[in-house]
User: Fold Sel1 repeat family protein from Rheinheimera aquimaris.
Amino acid sequence: MLSSFMLAAEPQQQFETAVAAYQQGDYHKAAQIWQALALEGNTKAQFELAKLYSMGQGVEQDALQAAYWLEQAASNSTDFAESFRAQQDIASGLQQHKSQQAGVVAEALPAAVPDTSTVKTADAVSSAAADSAVAQASAKPTAAKPPELAVLALTEANFDIGMRAFQRQRYDEAYSHWYPLAQAGEVDAQFNLAAMYANGYGIQTDDTEAAHWFSQAAEQGMAQAQYQLAVAHANGKGLAQDDALAVYWYRKAAEQQYVLAQYNLGFMYANGRGVTQDDASALLWYERAAAQGDVDAQYIVAERYQSGRGAPADINQAIGWYQRALEQGHARAGYQLAHYYLRGQGVAKNESRAFDLFSRAASQGLIEAQRELGISYSIGRGVRNNDSKAVAALEAACNGRDATACYYLAVHLSEGRGVKTDEARAALLFEQAAEAGDMEAQFRLGVLLSQGDSGVVDEAAAFDWFKRAAAQGHAEAQYLTALRLANGTGTEQNDAEAVKWYQRAAEQGVVFAQYNLGFMYGAGRGVAQDDEKALYWYSKVAATGDADAQFNLGLRYETGKGVRQDDKQAVKWYQKAADQGHQRALAYLGYMYEKGYGVSMDERKAFDLYQQSLSARVPRALTALGLFYKNGRQVKADDKKAAELFLQAAEQGYANAQYNLGWMYEYGRGVSKDLAKARDWYQRAAEQSEPLAQAQLSRLLNP
Assistant:
């Protein structure tokens, strides 16, 4: 078999040697070096190898191998731009290759193709009869051409001598030994001859001849040849592109435990290429490759058990496969395991273990892990808080275009944690993360713009960012979006839209949103007036201990608005709010004690509660307290004090206070006697249908 050779130089020197070979057109040598480095985990070499497989330079063009190595590199790269450029290079090279070829050449598969097809139940093409039908339907490669170089007689040909010649790059000599052996049916010679035609070793590259000899070896049962023939069918290289035949030969090789064929067969089922899309069959073949130690297959199997694709979700299976991939150094497997430990899902919660796994994946250059490492240092999750280390990790992830990392870095910059405060850069990073779709950054940017922390107040822009975060489900942003719509701040006033966003925030438990939603239903703003729904939301807020909601609930029980009137329930909720120092609740509770509604009458307690509520200037309490002073109940009579209290309530339009103030002016109690003012206050009270004021006014006007 043909083989690659490891050079004795350092990796960087090897890489540079490969670059030089590539620039000189020696793609085969470059491929050999990059292949060896790629297998050792060298990310740059993996990118370059992916390009070679995509363009068929120095190796046989193989879209699945290109996808494999691109995914390997992308999962380990710390340089987003490098990954993006590599993909662009591949796409550009393919386009150029297609334009130069008359035949159809399949484009390289993306590094991680999502399985978006609808899952359908279908029989897998696996029976001997089905295989036979596919094989008979295939167009056999053309017969072998006459030898292009001098060849030996069969009796003189020797496979091992040919191999030694090949290793010394004496390709014509290797060809002279292998060609007659291949013609005679020796499978290893057929395979190596195919490789020479595929890669242009000593002869002109000829995909058709390569396909012919791969086919000859494949028909004899060589798994590696079957795999290569499948790749040729999948890519349409040397013969017609045919996914069904690719599946046929992948299966032949896979059934011989050829791990790459098993992986690729799983890929074909996962994506419905050459066979009906079937997640169960995809999982079966991926799992067989995983069992043989293919680290990428192990990761894919773990993902599928995690999401329940191809089999019922099984957290233990997922964790097991992630663990096996981690043992081979798969960065993303460690990252996924860290989240299980962070949540305590399927394993005992262990933030310290999660931190260790994030740290390991971050050291391998995984951007998401760098972000989580930074967050861990920032909030002391599984490790002692260290703001400077948090900033370093977040900076690395932000440079890799991770929006969430940029958000957390901006928080540190704005608060001066682990780094010198830099509001300008913080604002830029918040905006960068917000533009990338990070909802926390969108919310924070809205706050900055609404408060002027960014250097300027821009309510319209603030509303836009709040709404974008709200659309992603940010509860507090939903509340602030609703509040601005209700008040017309930064946008047109729109009660109906406000109700919609209050509803969403309320359902996520935002107390202010629940309270305001109760208000909107109670007032009929943006929605049909509905006391029962208002009561429902006030009750939810009251149950959280919110004093305003407790007071409103008490008021509804006292008045019977939206609920059956119940003085005892009114007293209960007034008391809960009063215990938190709610001034209006103190005033209303005082009234209940004064009248004996829902509680035993207690004028002394009522007086004390009224006194405690004075700063709220509740008209009912002011008037009642004025009467206490006027009549000398629970306190020494003081007409002047009484008149002052009546005036405070009267100026707020409270009819009973207006009547009492008029009476004080009529009789000169606590104020100078003034019939004109008396008539004026009686008039105001009478217009509100105060019966005593109407009687007094009638008497004054009709002496």
